[in-house]
Design brief:
This protein is of the alpha+beta class. About 15% of the residues lie in helices and about 30% in strands. The protein starts with about 80 loop residues before the first helix and ends with a strand. Mean pLDDT is about 85; it is low at about 1-35 and about 70-75.
Amino acid sequence: MPIVTDGSAWRQPDGVAGQGAPGARSTSTTGTGQSPWWSDALSDPWRDPDAPSAVVIRPAAQPPPLESDPTSTGTGPRRGLGLVFLVAIVSALLAGSLGGTLGYVFATRGGAGGRTVLGAGGNGSPASLTVRPPSSLAGVASRLLPSVVTIKVGTGSGYSLGSGFIASGDGYVITNDHVVEGEKGQPTVTFSDSTTVSAKLIGVDEESDVAVLKMDKTGLPAVQFGDSDRVAVGDPVLAIGSPLALANTVTYGIVSSLNRTIEADEPGGPTRYYAAIQTDAAINHGNSGGPLIDAGGRVIGINSVIRSTASDSETAGNIGLAFAIPINQAKRIAQDIINNGKARRTVIGAELSNSYLNPNGGVEVTVVSPGGPASHAGIRAGDVLTRINNVPLDQPADLIALVRMYAPGQSVNVQYQRDGGPHNVQVTLAASTN
C-alpha cells in the first residue's frame, strides 16, 4: 500500500488505519517490537504524526535607517524623510529654472527654428555715440554744411562747377575767380538741402583768384571767419565742397605748411599768385572755392589749388598737396569787391630781375618806384631781398605772393643784402594806383 508522508495526523496501529488519540504513540513493530516509522520521532516532530505543528509568519525585515541617530528610540519621524523632502524641493526649483530659461529662449527666438540674433543685443547705440558734441569734427561739419554751396556756371562748351560759402546772411557768397571765369550764363547756387537759386556775379580779383556772388535771399547761415595769421602747422582742418560733383563732401587733414608761394599760369588767362595754407586734406576738382575750416568751425582759407603728378589739369587728382588762400587776404579782397566793385592790390614799389640766380636764394631789385614803399624804406636797385617777415624769398613770384597777403598800410620786415652785408628794414606797403 502506498505510504503517505505529508505530515498529516495519521497512524497505522497494528496494521489498521484510523485516528489515534492525540499524543499516543504507535505500538506496532516490525519484528523488533518497534515501528520503523518512528525510530527517530523524538528528534524530528515532522516524522511524528501526533506532534503538534504550526505555520509561523515572521515580520519582514525593516531597512536600516539612512543615517544613524543615537537618540532614536525607533518611534517618531526619521531624519531620512527630511532628506527626501529636501531633494524633492531642489529638483522642483531646478526644473522651474530650466523651464523659465527655455521659455525665454523660445519667446525671443520664435522657437527652436527662430532667427539668429547677431551682436550683443540692445536697442541701438547709446546716446553718447549718436549725439556729437558741437566741438567734435562731426559737430563742426554738421554746423558748417548748410553754409557751403555748390556753384554752377555756364560756359561756351558746357558749364563749370565749383564750391563756395555764404559770407553774409543777406546772400553774399565767396568763391574762386577760376570757378566763375568765362561765364556765359547766370550762375546758380545749390544749398546742402539741394535747393537751387540763381545768383549774380558782383566782381573778381583775377590775380588773387577771389570772386563774389550775390543771391537774392536773406536770413542765410553765414560762416564764422577765423584768423589765418594765427594758424599753425599741425592744426586739424576740414575741407567741405563738391569734388568731382559730389556735393556736401567733407574731408579731413592738417595744416602741412604756411606761406607756400605758388604762381599759377593758365593758357590765355591771368597769372595767379598764392601765399597759401598747405593742407593734406583730400581736395579735388570741384572743391575750388570751398572753405578750409579749423577745429573750431571757423573758415581760415579758400581751397584753390592742388599739386598733382598728372601731366594735365583734367586728370589731376589729390595726392595730399592742396593749397588754400588765407582767409584774412580773401575776406579783405571780397570786402573791397562788395564795397568798391574791385579789390585794391598791395604793392611794395619795386621790380625784380627774372634772371637772377643765387644758391643762397634771394631776389634782385632792378627798379625802385619813386615815392613808393621800397623807396621810402631806403631800398635801392641792386639790393638782394632775402626775407619778408622771416619767410625766405627764392624767386620774384615769392615776393609778389607774400606782399599781396597783406593789406595796404600794413608794415612788414624786409631783410636784404647790399655789397655783401646784411640789412634789415621795415616797409609800409601801399595800394596799387592802376
